[in-house]
Amino acid sequence: MAAPIFKDIPDLEGIWTLQGVPWIVRKALKYASLSLNISQTTTIPDLPEKPALEVEGYDTPVTTLHVKQTVSPGNFDSEGSYSVNGEAKEYSLPIFGNISMQLRYMNTTEISDQDLQQKLSEGSPSKTVIDELAHNSTKGWNARVLWGFEVIDGRRYLTRNVITSKDERSVKARMVYDFQN
Which domain of life is it from (predicted)? Predict the structure, then answer.
């Protein structure tokens, strides 16, 4: 099912199933399906033991995405919690290894690719995306992922637009997710 209009950044809670898997990936995974089960919490960080006038951002809510990725059949499931606050954190992910990731909310007007900016603006009433930056220093790659909503063939979907780069080369991909519930 396409994403309902009430689903928008920052509310990604639900189960999202990957659609339109490229031919080469389908051959590798054969009959596999991939889904993301996303829940989220929003908290206000604890106030440090300093007067409020000296502390910046202590009352800024922080959303944490709890993501369980399931690949069926297969043994590639993973689970993690990711704060959308712009701070880099270290993670160890089964497929990608040790990576540094940071996620932040970003207005669609900040997207430099004009075509992508237009698509994500049209699909998102809030005009907001999640900007994810990932870096694997051991393997030498970087990735930028924009999580947002797009209208594709008249239906609205959660998408993750990815640019992965290593050694002067880059690869672009778009993952499209159907909303399950």
Answer: Eukaryota
Return the amino acid letter for 41. Answer: T
Helix (H) or strand (E) holding 108: none
- The answer to whether the predicted template modeling score (pTM) of the entire model surpasses 0.90 is no
Structural domains in the chain, CATH included, are 14-43+60-179 (2.40.128.20)
Residue by residue, DSSP assigns 6-69 as T-BTTB--EEEEEES--HHHHHHHTT-EEEEEEEEEEE-PPPPSS-GGG-SSTT--EEEEEEEE
For the stretch 29-72, pLDDT in tens is 555 677 889 999 988 876 666 555 555 555 678 899 998 888 77
